[in-house]
Structure formats: C-alpha cells, structure tokens
Specification:
The chain folds into two domains: about 170 residues, Peroxisomal Thiolase, Chain A, domain 1; about 150 residues, Peroxisomal Thiolase, Chain A, domain 1. The protein is about 35% helix and about 25% strand. The protein contains eleven helices and 13 strands. The strands form four sheets. The chain has a five-stranded mixed sheet, sandwiched between helices. The chain starts with 6 loop residues before the first strand and ends with a strand. It binds oxa(dethia)-CoA (UT7).
Length: about 325
C-alpha cells in the first residue's frame, strides 16, 4: 500500500433514538446489577429505537446531518454505503431505503455486512471508490437497531447493546488531510462465537426457530472478549506500521465501543495514554457499526478532534472481522 491520500472526511453526523434504557431498568428485567454491568463493561445506559422507526430512519438522519455539516445537499451524493447487520428487510438493501428517505436521487447505494467493523469496511470502500475516480461524494453510514435482535431474557448479551447511526461524508482529498490508510481483516472460523443463527435463508422462520430464540444475537462473551483484545491490538499496530507512524503521532484513538476493558487493552498495546482515547460506551453501549462514526462525530463537535489532528479508528466484530483506519482531519 502506498502512502497516497485519496479522500478526506468533510462532514459527520448522527441519528440517535431518544429512548434510553439504564442499567437500573435491566435490574428489573434480568438477574443483573448496575454495579456488575459498569465494572465488567463500562456501560451505564443505551439508546433504544422508538416503535415504528427502523435502521434506515436512524441512518437517513445521520446522513442528512453529515451532509449539513459538509454544506452539501442529498443530490450531491453519488454513492451511499450503509454498514449494518440489522437492515430493515431481507432485501432491498437498507442503503437503497436510506437513499429514498434522504432524496439522494443521484446516488448508487449498497450495504456492507461486517458487523461492528462495518463502518471501517465502508470507509475503506468509499476511499477506494474515490481513489479510482468512480465516485466524488460518498456517504458512509454505520447504523444499527440491535435492540430488535436482542434477547431480553439473556443477561449475558442484553445489557450490552444499543441503537443508533453515525455517518461521514468523503470527498477527494485536499492537501495532506484525509485517510492515510486502512486495514481490513477477517477470520471466518470464529463466526459461531457471535452470530444470529436465524433471520437468513438457512433456517426459515418456524415455531422451532422462535422457541429456540434463533432470531436473536448469541454470543460466547468470554471467547469473543479474548479475540477482540488480540484483534483490536493487531489492527491498531498494523495500520501504524503500514503508515510509518507510532502511538505518539495519534491525537485521538477512537476504538469500537463494546467494552471499556477492551478499549483500555487496545490503547495500552499502542501506548496511547487515556487522555487521548475517546470513550462514550457508558452512554451508548455497543452500537456495532454505528459506534465509531457516533464517537467520531462527538469527538469533533466536542473539540476533542480538530482539523489537522490525526485519529486512529479501530474496530472488531462478528465474522470475525477487524479493521483500522488512520485519518488526518
Ligand atoms: O462488538 C463486538 C464484540 N463484542 C464484544 O466485544 C463483547 C466481548 N465480551 C465482553 O465484553 C464480556 O465477555 C462480557 C461483558 C460479555 C462478559 O464479561 P466477562 O467478564 O467475560 O464475564 P463472563 O462471561 O466470564 O461471566 C462471568 C460471570 C458468569 O457467572 P458465573 O458463571 O461466574 O457464575 C456470568 O453468568 O458473570 C455472569 N454474568 C452476569 N452477571 C450479572 C454474565 N452476564 C451478567 C450480567 N449480570 N449481565
């Protein structure tokens, strides 16, 4: 991979549902406690989509906010990439539904399914489309409504997940700002450790699939945790090595927000001190593909990520998939 810069992020935005579930609410639903959830994950509350709103609604809201931030209009967009594993329907793609909701009439649109790494897969794809001059204005959106596929009788998973969407607008790079590099990796041998067995064509909906909760997320938490620590560390280290940078060059680490302990381990691996690590897992829980773009938008709007500064984005998710990107804003 060369060191050319092809595209830059010119706007970000989010779509966050207003409904909130706190740890205390979960104490009434399953055998858990606020103290356990905080200590083991760092999560305090998460947003849950309102009845009648779907992944596409959150994504369209995030996309429109990102375009406003970039001072562009929906008609300016020529590619929409939506990263999600909780699309509205079997098909068409959520990206096409989002296109319609946004009025982005000039865009091509497609989905990427890489779970929690999806936004970085999308960012890498958008960057490549601009590099090869197949697109000029790309909207990359990560959006999920994990609450729709969460088993609220399983304490090992239900306390972890939240809903939301985040988006970034990519345009051809100017000067030395932009995406300095991306790194994508997968290992399909581990798919069964974090998955939804139903909802595809292998097991069609039946009394059995419903009775066995096969339409819900299943996770071997401890195993996933171990792999996540290793993979997030690998992703962070590899992209720094490839771009010839070190942790000292990173102004802000924006890791996937699944668990505070995984975030801490990732930061340590590349020697980035806590004051340069962005964390909002306490307010959102794990929003899968939405977590990095939501965090990135908050960091920018909160003044923690300013123009000229470099962010290291790192993700890990079902597949397994993992990914990283270095971005100079
Ligand atoms: O987004 C992509 C990837 N996802 C992740 O990165 C998630 C990775 N995994 C994790 O974050 C952690 O493994 C969890 C937070 C899910 C679990 O934490 P842990 O420290 O690995 O706990 P554990 O699974 O080893 O369970 C320890 C104990 C068990 O009880 P016993 O067997 O020791 O009696 C669990 O049954 O904690 C129990 N437990 C709970 N207790 C209270 C599990 N969930 C809960 C709960 N409240 N919500």
């Amino acid at each position: 991979m060369g060191n050319s810069i092809y595209s830059m992020i010119v706007g970000t935005g989010v779509g966050i549902p207003s409904r909130i579930l706190t740890n205390k609410d979960f104490e009434k639903m399953v055998d858990t406690s606020d103290a356990w959830i905080k200590e083991r994950t760092g999560i305090e509350e998460r947003h849950i989509v309102e009845e009648g709103r779907y992944t596409s609604d959150l994504c369209a809201e995030a996309g429109l906010n990102a375009l406003t931030d970039a001072r562009l209009k929906p008609e300016d967009v020529d590619l929409i990439i939506v990263a999600t594993v909780t699309g509205d329907v079997g098909f068409p793609s959520t990206a096409c539904i989002v296109q319609e909701k946004m009025g982005a009439i000039n865009a091509a649109a497609f989905d990427i399914a890489a779970a929690c790494s999806g936004f970085l897969y999308g960012l890498s794809m958008g960057n490549a489309m601009i590099a090869t001059e197949q697109a000029k204005t790309v909207l990359v959106i990560g959006g999920e409504t994990l609450s729709r596929v969460t088993d609220y009788s399983d304490r090992g998973t239900c306390v972890l997940f939240g809903d939301g969407a985040g988006a970034a607008v990519l345009r051809p790079a100017e000067g030395n700002r932009g995406i300095l590099g991306t790194y994508l990796k997968s290992d399909g041998r581990f798919g069964h450790l974090l998955h939804i067995p139903g909802l595809g064509t292998r097991y069609l909906p039946s009394h059995d699939t419903l009775d066995n909760h096969m339409h819900f997320i299943k996770m071997e938490g401890r195993e996933v945790f171990k792999q996540a620590v290793m993979a997030m560390g690998d992703a962070a280290e590899t992209i720094l090595n490839r771009t010839g940078l070190t942790g000292d060059d990173v102004d802000l680490l924006i890791p996937h927000q699944a668990n505070l302990r995984i975030i801490d381990a990732t930061a340590k691996r590349v020697k980035i001190p806590p004051e340069r690590v962005f964390v909002n897992v306490e307010r959102y829980g794990n929003t899968s593909a939405a977590s990095i773009p939501i965090a990135m938008d908050e960091a920018r709007r909160g003044g923690k990520l300013q123009d000229g500064q470099t962010a290291l984005l790192v993700a890990f998710g079902s597949g397994f998939t993992w990914a990283s990107a270095l971005v100079r804003f």
